[in-house]
Design a protein that fits this description.
Number of domains: 2
Shape: globular
Strand content: 5-15%
Distance between the termini: 42 Å
Number of helices: 11
Largest sheet: 5 strands, antiparallel
CATH architecture of the largest domain: Sandwich
Helix content: 40-55%
CATH topology of the largest domain: Jelly Rolls
Mean pLDDT: 81
Keywords: DNA-binding, Transcription, Transcription regulation
GO molecular function, one term: sequence-specific DNA binding
Number of strands: 9
Pfam families: HTH_18 (PF12833)
Protein name: Helix-turn-helix domain-containing protein
Oligomer: single chain
Order of helices and strands: HEEEEEEEHEHHEHHHHHHH
Organism: Mucilaginibacter agri
C-alpha cells in the first residue's frame, strides 16, 4: 500500500458538511474497494477492526507486525502507512469506522481525542484481541454497519453510543508493545513529514488557524526528537525542515492573496501568525514584496 497521506482513492462520496452524515461512516474492509488507508484526512479519526490478514502498521520510527485480530486507533494528524502482505491481501477482513471529533463530542463524553490514551501521538494504539473480544466487537461493528443504512431517526445517537462502547472496551485492554524499527528510517520520517505538511493545506477558512507551525510541532506529531526529524529531512531532501514549512506557507499565502478577498489580517491568522505585522515581515523577507503589493499587482 502507499503511504496513507499520499494519493488514495476514496471509495465513497464523503463530503465535508455540518451534517452527521459527513461526520461518521462505517464500512467493512474491502467494501466498495475500501482499504485500511481510506479516509485518512485531517478531519477524521479512525478505528480499524481487522479480523483476518497479515500486515505491518508503520509510523515514522516504529512499526508493528499484525498477524492476528487487532483493534487500531488512528489520529488524523499522525501519518502512518498500513502495508498488507500481498500474499494474504485477499484474506483481509474486518471493519473500520471514521468520525470527526465534533461527532463524538456531541455526546456527554468530554475531552480532546488527540490527547486521549488511544489517539495521542506517543500512545500505543494497537490492541491484539482474544476470541471473546473479537466476538463482542464483531457484534458492535456489524450492528453499526446495519444501522448506518437504516431510516431510524436517532441512528446517529445510537452509532455514537456504539463507538463509545468500542473506545471503553479498548481502554480496558492491554495495548500491544512489540514495536520494531522500520528500515530506511530517515527516508520514512522525511516522507511522513512531507505528507503531514501537505495535509495542513489548503487553508479553506479565515477562521482556521494553522496548527503545525514549526519543526518541533511536526516532530511531536511524528513522535520523534526534533533534531532527528531535522537530520532525516535534510538528508533525504537536501532542504531543512524549516525551509519546507516556509515554502509551503508562502505558496499558500500567495494563493489566498490571489484567489480570495480575505484581508491580510485574516490570511495572517489562518497561516498561524499572531499579528498581521509578523506575516507582512515574513512574506516580504521571502518574496521581496508585501502581501498587499502582491495583491495589487495581479
Amino acid at each position: 500500500m502507499e503511504e496513507s497521506q499520499a494519493t488514495e482513492k476514496v471509495p465513497f462520496e464523503f463530503k465535508i458538511s455540518p451534517t452527521e452524515f459527513a461526520q461518521f461512516k462505517v464500512a467493512t474492509i474491502s467494501e466498495g474497494k475500501c482499504s485500511l488507508s481510506s479516509y485518512n484526512r485531517r478531519d477524521y479519526y479512525k478505528i480499524s477492526f481487522v479480523t483476518n490478514g497479515r500486515s505491518q502498521l508503520l509510523y515514522a520510527n516504529r512499526g508493528i507486525q499484525i498477524d492476528q485480530p487487532v483493534l487500531v486507533f488512528t489520529n488524523p494528524m499522525i501519518p502512518y502507512s498500513w502495508d498488507a502482505d500481498e500474499t494474504y491481501t485477499d484474506e483481509m477482513s474486518g471493519y473500520f469506522c471514521v468520525f470527526t471529533e465534533e461527532f463524538l463530542n456531541d455526546s456527554a463524553r468530554p475531552g480532546n481525542l488527540q490527547q486521549s490514551s488511544l489517539f495521542k501521538p506517543d500512545g500505543n494504539p494497537v490492541y491484539f484481541l482474544n476470541d471473546e473480544q473479537v466476538s463482542y466487537l464483531t457484534s458492535i461493528f456489524s450492528r453499526m454497519r446495519h444501522e448506518i443504512d437504516s431510516e431510524y431517526v436517532y441512528k446517529y445517537d445510537l452509532l455514537r453510543s456504539q463507538v463509545n462502547l468500542i473506545i471503553h472496551e479498548a481502554i480496558k485492554m492491554q495495548p500491544a508493545i512489540a514495536y520494531f524499527s522500520p528500515q530506511n528510517a530517515a527516508s520514512r520520517i522525511a516522507k511522513l513529514f512531507i505528507n503531514l505538511l501537505e495535509r495542513q493545506f489548503p487553508v479553506d477558512s479565515p477562521r482556521f488557524a494553522l496548527k503545525l507551525k514549526k519543526a518541533g510541532d511536526y516532530a511531536d506529531r511524528l513522535s520523534v526528537h526534533v533534531n532527528h526529524l531535522n537530520a532525516a529531512v535534510q538528508e533525504s531532501t537536501g532542504k531543512s525542515t524549516t525551509t519546507h514549512i516556509n515554502e509551503k506557507i508562502i505558496a499558500e499565502a500567495k494563493s489566498l492573496l490571489m484567489h480570495t478577498d480575505w484581508s491580510a489580517a485574516e490570511i495572517a491568522f489562518s497561516l498561524g501568525f499572531e499579528y498581521a505585522s509578523y506575516f507582512n515581515n515574513f512574506f516580504k523577507k521571502h518574496t521581496g514584496l508585501t502581501p498587499m503589493t502582491l495583491r495589487k499587482s495581479l
